[in-house]
Amino acid sequence: MADGVFESKLGIDPKKVERARQLARDIAIDVVNFVSKYSTVSVERTICRFYGIDNVTEDGIPLPNVVVDHLKERGALTDGAAVYIANAVLQTGMTPQEIAEQIAAGKLDLTKLPMKDMEEIRATALELAKKAVAIVDEKKEERKRMIEELGDPPQPYIYVIVATGNIYEDVVQAQAAVRQGADIIAVIRSTAQSLLDYVPYGATTEGFGGTYATQENFRIMRRALDEVAREVKRYIRQTNYSSGLCMPEIAALGALERLDVMLNDALYGILFRDINMIRTMVDQYFSRIILGYAGIIINTGEDNYLTTADAYEQGYTVISSQLINEQLALLAGIPEEQMGLGHAFEMDPSLENGFLYELAQAQLSRELFPKAPLKYMPPTRFMTGNIFRGLVQDAMFNVVGIWTKQGIQLLGMMTEAIHTPFLSDRFVAIDTAKYIFNNMKNIGDEVIFKPGGIIQRRAQEVLDQAIALLERMREDGLFKSLEKGVFANTKRQMKGGKGLEGVFEKGKYYYNPFIELMHKPRI
To answer: Which Pfam families match (predicted)?
Structure first.
């Protein structure tokens, strides 16, 4: 894309690109119009958290859950937590935190307080919200200052993960990885935390396949990464997961603790965690408003489709989903520069010319989304105990990454099919990637593709297939399409899955001041 003119090494017809984007836009608008009528318990808990409600009861129940459950049990949640908290502030003079503590102690019932004039309540709710937004603004400025001071590493950013289960051990491994050359550190979340309908509290030292995502854990890792960033003299980005049943809450915590990247994709939760599609699409909309405003890059989960569906046969589903995710993100206010749209190097290594097909797929994503810091995922489905072949597979993945100018390169580890990678395995992965990125830095600028050759034909075919799928999806709508199993060979029911009981239709007086303050739609 140059000066608004579409330029394609793949021979892609710009009219087809616009057609695909318009179809995706129609699908996304239909979704947003639907979900805008609803809120969820997790959206309301997010408002509580932004209002400064924190800590847990003696029984370990988070106070945001206490407040929202209190309103839900009394049939009062339809007008939203902000209305009742603001009214209580006006009536009692207490802070939102004090109000939550009184509710937990059984000394206050929000529904029994006389209601002030609704205009006064909304004004108070808005003023309370401005305090939280000011903190987010401060964190954005802090990120900007640090990048100016330390410098921003070149893309593709080298992205590696830590997953010990113990946040303090994660810090040790994260700092070691940064010294080895990593630019982004992702703290893998404890297995199945996405299915918890609450956010754990405090620093945690035990997890399963990862470490719990908590505000204190975010804070500990942020401090550690800032410390090592000053040592290596480059800004280091922190990643965690804004997904699952607490998607918007974790987005808020990420915004308050200056995370830089968050995995954020409702479709992943629907397909791979069987979270109810209405619940998670409502949650995603608000979470993306927060992340867009906070300057946090989202990572989407299209790469996961290819772990259950064949990457050659169904590569077009990745493109279709990327286009829909782009439009949903724009509607929520996320600029293209914050869209880490996902895809992966997942074709069967025995496929003849598989590298060419991978190159075509990655180049197609780059041309369709020229401003996006695309998140490119390594081979996983066909990794084996043969670490020597695994290292070659990862190297070929890195070649495609630098060739097609990916933004975020999540490095593969040669031992990942055997065990959780050691520090030495991570060193090999980083060292190999740096070697390839340096030696092939400008290959994408130098090499053109044969007109009508394998790469061009493959990319054009994938785009045509994606358009055909988007045509059907626009006819059916996203929810019915998911019921039909259009992505990842997985079918889900609109009224099925986990979390539907936490969805409610907005009442007459419903108000979410953070949407008013943070939402800046891009289309």
So the answer is: Lys-AminoMut_A
